[in-house]
Amino acid sequence: MIAVTEPASTSDLRLLKGARTRATITRHAVDIASVEGLTGVSIGRLATDLGLSKSGVATLFGSKENLQVAAVDAAREVFVERIVRPALSEPAGLPRLRALIDRWLDYVTEPVFPGGCFRAATLTEFDSRPGPVRDALARDRRDWLGLLAGEYRRAREDGAVPDRDPDEAAFEIDAVLAATNTALRLDDARAAATARSIVDHILNANPR
Predict the structure, then answer these.
(1) In 160-180, which positions are buried (b, 16+ CB within 10 angstroms) versus exposed (e)?
(2) How many other CB atoms are found less than 10 A from the CB of residue 97?
(3) Strand, coil or helix: what is 128?
(4) What pLDDT is recorded for position 14?
(5) Model confidence over 151-187: pLDDT tens digits?
(6) In whole angstroms, what is the distance from residue 63 CA to residue 52 CA?
């Protein structure tokens, strides 16, 4: 018996279509979560919104929890593309740290997602709910704080910022940025300017 195999090109096209559909679904999930939280993300909701079959969405993700984790990962990719990667072109230390902060403020002042910062919108929702979604959010936050702390540490070595614990400084900067996102969503027109002023105070030091 002669085995008939599907042409590679047809198989590749199906994989490509599946990848595109998955990307479309996860991006819409991120948009919803930035406004309503990750609990507002469900297979049925996304299928209805995007005109897809519920079974088709379920086949791609398997469960609501997997879909939520995929949304966290998709939001992280956008964050890296819009904030982290461009900032890496700046010299390590204070210039890169300021670039990270400035790009984050741009990211929420003219929001990429309808609800502003995805992380700020979803962390409190899952901070006390153990599981893969919380783990993904916690890992994302930990990496961001680690990046801020690392650049602060380098800036401190250069004598460009106050001599203080880098992790403490990163925590403080992140708290200011999260509060800024909330203020912007509540139509505080001065929120970004206020944040820049506070961050300048945190970073202010006389170089050696």
Answers:
(1) bbeeeebeebbebbbebbbbb
(2) 28
(3) coil
(4) 58
(5) 999 999 999 999 999 999 999 999 999 999 999 999 9
(6) 16
Long-range contacts of 179-186, Cβ-Cβ distance < 8 Å, separation of 24 or more: 180/105, 180/108, 181/108, 181/116, 181/117, 181/120, 181/121, 182/120, 184/108, 184/109, 184/111, 184/116, 185/115, 185/116
CA 109 from chain center: how many Å? 15
Q: How many CA atoms lie within 13 A of 39 on its CB side?
A: 5
Q: For the residues 41-53, what does the mean pLDDT come to?
A: 93
Handedness of CA 157, 159, 163, 168 (dihedral sign): negative
Amino acid at position 166, single letter = P
CA gap 93, 166 in Å, rounded: 12
* Residue bearing tokens 């609501």: 64
The one-letter code for the residue type at 196 is R
Is residue 208 classed exposed, middle or buried when 0-12, 13-18 and 19+ CB atoms within 10 A define those classes? exposed
Position 103, amino acid: R
Say how far apart CA 49 and CA 144 lie, in whole Å.
32
Among 204, 148, 140, 44, smallest CA distance to 132 is for 140
